[in-house]
Amino acid sequence: MYRKREYLTTPMFGKSIKLMLLGSGELGKEIAIEAQRLGVEVIAVDRYDWAPAMHVAHRRYVIDMLNPNAVKAVVDREKPDVIVPEIEAVSYEALEELESRGYFVVPNAKAVRIAMNRIELRRFAAEVVGLPTTRYAFAESPDEAVEACDKVGYPCLIKPEMSSSGHGHVKVEEPNPRVVKEAYQYAVTHARGRSKRVIVEEFVQLETEFTILAYRYVGENGIVTGACEPVEHWRYGKYHYIESWQPSTKPQHILEKAREIGIKIANALGGLGIFGVEVFLTKDGRVLFSEVAPRPHDTGMVTMASQDLSEFAIHVRAILGLPVPKPRVLTPAASIAIYTDKDNVWAPKIKGVYEALNIDGVDIRIFGKPFTYRERRMAVVLARGKSIEEALEKARKASSYIIIE
Ligand SMILES: Nc1ncnc2c1ncn2[C@@H]1O[C@H](COP(=O)(O)OP(=O)(O)OP(=O)(O)O)[C@@H](O)[C@H]1O
Ligand SMILES: [Mg+2]
Q1: Does residue 262 share a domain with residue 236?
Q2: What's the gap in Å between 65 CA and the centre of ligand 1?
Q3: I need a labelling partner for 344 at 20 to 30 A (CA). Which of 42, 114, 260, 262 fits?
Q4: Domain coverage including residue 40
Q5: Which pTM value belongs to this model?
Q6: 198 with 247, same domain?
Q7: Ligand that comes closest to the CA of residue 207
Q8: Inter-axis angle of helices 92-100 and 68-78, to 10 degrees?
Q9: Does position 239 have pLDDT exceeding 90, yes or no?
Q10: Domain co-membership, 195 together with 141
Q11: 283 lines ligand 1 (CB under 6 A)
């Protein structure tokens, strides 16, 4: 079904290989750049104009990606060889129909559907694949939420079935039905779409968090699955800000467990490409599957500094049917995402870059987003060092200079 690619082509002429991004954010931009390096014709699609990947694509389209007809129309017009959903908010109906008509959706339409829905994903991961997770229960009314929280125990976390970047998550500290019902209402009103369903999860004390970048590619004798050295990351406060580093400083037996979880879920979801698998290490020593994005992961941007093949290069090779010999960590590195607290500034200036780049081993990626909103991620600082401590210190120093105005 998945074939080795025998040749690449010249973009913009005749029968070129075409890659279409559904979602053109900063991750899509790096995917586009890697595809461009291999002479692939790149088409960037998003819901607003001049999204990051559009700046490095051959063509661009602005559509409502939750509208199945709009997605199908743009795909049928371009007839891409590879369709790469870059965000969760893409019409699943459209992807499924396109796949049934012979289009290649990365990694496959079913995996996209499962991963975009917390309830489906939790059932699949815990009950089908058998991965260890936090305790959980589901609810679709205020009364069921009370029952679910009582079952899971306190503190617990209520999350809408569909949302991203922590939207609609509420922590419930103690068994108080009024508070639980309010929390439930908050979760469902901050969900993507109109679903009334939520997942209630045991709130665990985190020791650290990993992203396992697992990948599947076409080997000489069938699909090969692998996993990069675990990326470790930490967030301060609710969004601000994510520090990532690679390699992890945790003991090997824990990293092995985390990698095994990553490989198992990638194989269960199937298809080709990279999977950003989020894994918790709890203070009481449990290694738990949290969730998976069947695409490159924001915390994996550190691989642009640490590895010989970044997560984007791996993804592009894998989805094109090219080999991915084991990626190597060349140097300890860290990354820090730069957020803005400014609302609706058009064509923002990024200041402090001279001072940041004056630090040896530091690099920056400016996403090129045309306007800001509060908590929007605008850039990432990358830093290499002799050790993780040094890399993190440089990344912190560099990011402290950066101001978005
Ligand atoms: N059950 C839990 N116990 C403790 N902390 C949790 C739990 N679930 C989530 N978190 C924290 O909240 C973060 C975001 O959770 P999750 O990945 O489920 O949300 P998300 O909406 O997918 O966010 P993102 O897009 O940032 O990954 C986790 O990375 C972790 O730090
Ligand atoms: Mg997450």
Answers
A1: yes
A2: 25
A3: 42
A4: 18-105
A5: 0.97
A6: no
A7: 1
A8: 40
A9: no
A10: yes
A11: no
pLDDT value at 286 more than 60: yes
CB 291 less than 6 A from any atom of ligand 1:
yes
When pLDDT is cut at 50, 70 and 90, the band that residue 238 belongs to is low
My answer on whether 231 and 187 are in the same domain is no
Cα(186) to centroid(ligand 1), Å: 17
Percentage of residues of the chain with pLDDT beyond 90: 95
- Measured by CA distance, the residue closest to atom 26 of ligand 1 is 165
Q: How many domains does the chain have?
A: 3
- Do 215 and 292 lie in one domain? The reply is yes
Average pLDDT over residues 198-212: 97
Residue nearest ligand 1's atom 14 by CA? 166
Catalytic residue annotation: 164, 166, 278, 291, 298-299, 377
Q: Are residues 260 and 169 in the same domain?
A: no
Residue 10 lies in a domain: no
Q: Which of 161, 231, 236, 278 for a ligand 1 pocket mutation test, highest count of atoms within 8 Å of Cβ?
A: 278
Residues forming beta bridges with residue 231, ordered by sequence position: 211
Domain end (from 86, 105, 124): 105
Nearest residue (CA) to ligand 1, atom 6:
203
Quote the ligand 1 centre to 166 CA distance (angstroms). Answer: 6
Structure confidence at residue 317 (pLDDT): 98
Average pLDDT of the chain to the nearest whole number? 96
Residue 275 located in a structural domain: yes
Mean pLDDT of 55-72: 98
Q: Is 201 in the pocket of ligand 1 (CB under 6 A)?
A: yes
Residues 146, 245, single domain; the answer is no
Is the minimum distance from the CB of 10 to ligand 1 under 6 angstroms? no
Closest protein CA for atom 12 of ligand 1: 166
Which of 173, 206, 281 should be mutated for ligand 1, with most atoms under 8 A from CB? 206
